[in-house]
């Protein structure tokens, strides 16, 4: 095939040239709708975000943003706001708690599903369903299950003697963050399972056979064969999950709304509230810009880890 | 080994039960009478003689549920159509060529996944008010495209990467133009990719909440995810209606998911993980 196409390009010079130019023009033409979409819907809005974050004063008269004076006032005001720092630590706990637990569950279920026991095909499909459920519906499911008075979760806890009376998980500021982490884990872990499972299935079985011949125990096989085989896919899916949980507001918005007493107000929600509840667009865009910078840093770090692939 | 198999199977069953319980409990709540539901020690098993579908009738007869569902569908279909067309063309170009434009667009598509929805909402809110497309389907569709175009473009690039270039080259040596080769040879082979992208974008649009909540203000244009919130009152929640609404609202998602599942392991983990 390659030899034929190589012969094809060895034709008359001017034909080659126009063919190459047609190719380039076509490649650009196909890209134009996407370029237009990205420029109009992402690049220009992002530029505006940055611009607003640098403008002093209330950005209420939207048509005249560029008339406002420039400065870093929004950034310094945000950095001296105790709630900003509280939201930062809330985000850190929320992301680390949700993705950490989802990773453990995802790893366990992927290893189990990889054993190809009878019925694993149907399990694989069933376990993935939460991934397809809208965050808002996930929220109402868990609001109901973990309801203080009539929640079945509390009823179960009472049955086994772990709880007496009621506990409103989402309404108590001591447990609210934990309460929003639970549905987030439930929604996050299927994608992790799926990804690790795909990586597991790409490890050649001969390597396991060879390890067995060498007398490797289960733990050794995991450390020397399984983990190197899934490391890069795991790093990638952890990165994607962290970015998703860091950025999304749906579950928290529809369960606690950031409350009680800001206990579940993550940075993403802080941005939303500053912008659309208090109309402090400057502060909101300043925090949002810092979030993007942080997400970029995180993805570069985990991306480097993901590239250290073995197979 | 035998005991290990049994234990693995039990563990897997446990995971599956915990994972599926919220669905089960949502449906149970919707079909059981109020006194069985608002109980401090609810029965985990259904009482078949007392099953009722009042709540399902209720959401259709006594709420704007059908309107919300129709709005979600309109926005979903429009978002999917525009996103998939734009992304299929871009995915092909990103896969086959690597000029400056391709590389910068590729980088921009990746970076756009780092943007929180609550942040991009701010400039969109401003621009929409200037352009007069605040509170319109068009505005919401465009907002959804900020998420779906990057996602679907990378998904499609992944699919095109796996179609050998030699196929188009052979067609062109036989006299086909580049465009004909794309239309007659490559696109038919990319059908599973287009199907996966379609379902994937549709699912995302169906689930979307924060754009719709902020960019749509008229009740008659409200989508499902936002409308359902109205069952959650200030003082009390109508759990049965809410659970019936939740059950019906995830049916399309589950059906779409059934279509997507065969492509998942193959397609998503390679091409689309970058697009999640």
H and E order of chain B = HHHHHHHHHHHHH
Arithmetic mean pLDDT of chain B: 88
Largest interface, C-beta within 8 A = A-B, 105 and 103 residues
Q: What is the second-level CATH architecture of chain B?
A: Orthogonal Bundle
Number of helices of chain B: 13
The name of the CATH topology of chain B is MetI-like fold
Oligomer: heterodimer
Query: Quick one: how many beta strands of chain A?
Result: 0
Terminal-residue CA separation of chain B: 38 Å
Tell me the layout of helices and strands:
The complex is a heterodimer of chains A (311) and B (276).
Chain A: H1 2-8, H2 13-53, H3 73-79, H4 82-113, H5 120-132, H6 135-145, H7 152-159, H8 176-201, H9 205-213, H10 218-247, H11 250-255, H12 267-276, H13 281-307
Chain B: H1 2-31, H2 34-37, H3 54-61, H4 65-96, H5 100-111, H6 117-131, H7 137-161, H8 165-173, H9 178-189, H10 191-207, H11 210-215, H12 224-227, H13 239-272
Helix pairs in contact in B: 1-13, 3-13, 4-7, 4-10, 5-7, 7-10, 7-13, 8-9, 10-13
Describe the structure.
The complex is a heterodimer of chains A (311) and B (276). In chain A, 73% of the residues lie in helices and 0% in strands. Chain A has helices at 2-8, 13-53, 73-79, 82-113, 120-132, 135-145, 152-159, 176-201, 205-213, 218-247, 250-255, 267-276, 281-307. Chain A starts with a helix and ends with a helix. Chain B has helices at 2-31, 34-37, 54-61, 65-96, 100-111, 117-131, 137-161, 165-173, 178-189, 191-207, 210-215, 224-227, 239-272. Mean pLDDT of chain B is 88; it is low at 271-276. In chain B, helix 1 (2-31) crosses helix 13 (239-272) and helix 8 (165-173) packs antiparallel against helix 9.
């Amino acid at each position: 095939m390659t030899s034929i196409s190589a012969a094809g390009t060895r034709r008359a010079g001017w034909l080659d040239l126009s063919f190459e130019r047609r190719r380039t023009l076509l490649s650009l033409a196909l890209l134009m709708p996407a370029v237009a979409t990205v420029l109009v819907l992402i690049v220009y809005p992002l530029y505006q975000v940055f611009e607003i974050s640098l403008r002093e004063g209330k950005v209420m008269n939207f048509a005249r943003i560029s008339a406002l004076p420039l400065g870093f006032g929004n950034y310094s005001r945000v950095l001296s706001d105790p709630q900003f720092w509280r939201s930062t630590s809330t985000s850190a706990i929320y992301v680390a708690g949700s993705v950490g637990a989802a990773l453990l569950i995802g790893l366990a279920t992927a290893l189990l599903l990889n054993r190809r026991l009878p019925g694993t095909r149907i399990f694989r499909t069933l376990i993935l369903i939460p991934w397809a459920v809208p965050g808002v519906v996930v929220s109402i499911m868990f609001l109901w299950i973990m309801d203080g008075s009539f929640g079945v979760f509390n009823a179960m806890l009472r049955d086994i003697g772990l709880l007496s009376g009621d506990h409103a998980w989402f309404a108590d500021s001591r447990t609210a963050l934990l309460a929003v982490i639970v549905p987030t884990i439930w929604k996050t872990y299927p994608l992790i399972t799926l990804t690790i499972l795909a990586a597991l299935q790409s490890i050649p079985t001969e390597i396991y056979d060879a390890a067995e011949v060498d007398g490797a125990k289960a733990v050794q096989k995991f450390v020397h064969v399984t983990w190197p085989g899934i490391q890069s896919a795991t790093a990638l899916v952890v990165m994607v999950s962290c970015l998703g949980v860091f950025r999304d507001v749906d579950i928290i918005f529809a369960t606690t709304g950031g409350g009680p007493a800001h206990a579940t107000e993550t940075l993403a929600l802080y941005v939303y509230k500053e912008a659309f509840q208090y109309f402090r667009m400057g502060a909101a865009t300043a925090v949002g810009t810092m979030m993007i910078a942080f997400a970029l840093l995180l993805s570069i770090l985990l991306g480097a880890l993901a590239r250290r692939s073995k197979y | 080994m035998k005991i290990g198999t049994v234990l693995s199977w039990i563990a897997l069953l446990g995971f599956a039960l915990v994972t599926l319980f919220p669905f089960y409990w949502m449906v149970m709540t919707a079909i059981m009478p109020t006194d069985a539901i608002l109980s401090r020690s609810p029965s985990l098993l259904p009482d078949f003689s007392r099953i009722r579908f009042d709540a399902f009738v209720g959401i259709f007869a006594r709420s704007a549920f059908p309107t919300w569902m129709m709005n979600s569908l309109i926005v979903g279909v429009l978002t999917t159509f525009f996103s998939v067309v734009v992304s299929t063309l871009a995915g092909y170009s990103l896969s086959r060529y690597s000029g400056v434009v391709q590389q910068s667009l590729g980088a921009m598509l990746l970076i756009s996944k780092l943007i929180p929805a609550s942040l991009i909402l701010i400039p969109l809110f401003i621009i929409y008010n200037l352009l007069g497309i605040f509170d319109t389907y068009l505005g919401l569709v465009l907002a959804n495209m900020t998420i779906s175009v990057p996602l679907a473009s990378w998904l499609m690039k992944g699919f095109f990467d796996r179609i050998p270039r030699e196929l188009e080259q052979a067609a062109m040596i036989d006299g086909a133009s580049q465009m004909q080769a794309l239309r007659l040879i490559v696109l038919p082979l990319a059908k599973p990719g287009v199907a996966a992208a379609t379902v994937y974008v549709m699912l995302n649009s169906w689930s979307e909440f924060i754009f719709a909540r902020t960019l749509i203000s008229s009740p008659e244009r409200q989508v499902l995810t936002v409308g359902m919130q109205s069952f959650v009152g200030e003082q009390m929640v109508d759990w049965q209606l809410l659970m019936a609404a939740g059950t019906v609202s995830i049916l399309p998602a589950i059906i779409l998911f059934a279509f997507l599942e065969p492509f998942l392991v193959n397609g998503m983990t390679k091409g689309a993980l970058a697009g999640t």
